[in-house]
Amino acid sequence: xxNLQNHxxxxxxxxxxxxxxxxxxxxxxxxxxxxxxxxINQPADLSVTSLLDKLEIVYPENNQHLQGNVYQxxxxxxxxxxxxxxxxxxxxxxxxxxxxxxxTTSRDIxxxxxxxxxxxxxxxxxxxAGWEAGQLEExxxxxxWLAIPADxxxxxxxxxxxxxxxxxxxxxxxxxxxxxxVGHA
Length: 185
Description:
The structure is a single chain. The protein is of the alpha+beta class. It has a single domain (7-177), classed as VC0467-like (3-Layer(aba) Sandwich). It has 5 helices and 10 strands. Strands 1, 2, 3, 4, 5, 6, 7, 8, 9 and 10 form a 10-stranded mixed beta sheet that branches. The two termini are 19 Å apart. The model has no long low-confidence stretch (mean pLDDT 90). This is UPF0301 protein JHC10_06985.
């Protein structure tokens, strides 16, 4: 089993599940027990400022960094928030996944958003995608997903509406030419 932590899973055209159709999912954890990831291109009908208001977190008015959307990270634990950002050492519950990407789940990062202590770039998701042991490998074998190394440029600097297309371009072939039997002898 190849460890896909710090990779993007790209939904192929064969994946018809409405929750994951044309999604890009950042894999935070992948081991013999299963996998966990965050969908990064499905904006929720909720802005960052609206979420902070609901959590009664005070933030600076008119801050450009807070104007974006919260993302639907996946169908599991939709009340749980995850902040994907460049590495910083000052948050309580963080996991550094690469030299360029960290995921934080503690409230302290939300309280800092909009301040000078906040990460320079971030993506906020609610919920996550989870796979049981062997499930992701099975779905990869069915050509539901393709994997590429995570790219901070795509994550932080590409508009959400363009992330799936940009990710598929990194594959080096036209994903629409895939058939359901590709990769099977």
